[in-house]
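This section describes the prediction task in plain terms. A model, or a person checking by hand, is given the sequence of a single protein chain and must write out its three-dimensional structure as a string of tokens. No templates, partner chains or ligands are provided. The sample shown here is typical of the held-out split.
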Amino acid sequence: MRGAFTMRFQPDVAEFVQNRARAENRSVTNYVETLLLREKERVAETEGRLTVQADPELLREEGHRLVREDDETDEEYAARSVLFGALLTRAREG
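The expected answer:
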């Protein structure tokens, strides 16, 4: 069952939506629903995606060396090092 609700637009937005819907031979409802479905898909694709930004100097270096925390175990340091390396690799790839 489809849900229904009322939407209110500013006049210029309403005119834009009506014109776009008409240009694509769609109803306003179908046009708005299509836009929302595209946005839903985009959010689903990007949700959980991490964007990595790094200093260009750091990206030019092949190796990496983390400063170990005073209370960090060998296992924690190794896991953090692997994660850091993976993030740098991803940042290098763009």
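For orientation: The two ends are 43 Å apart (CA to CA).
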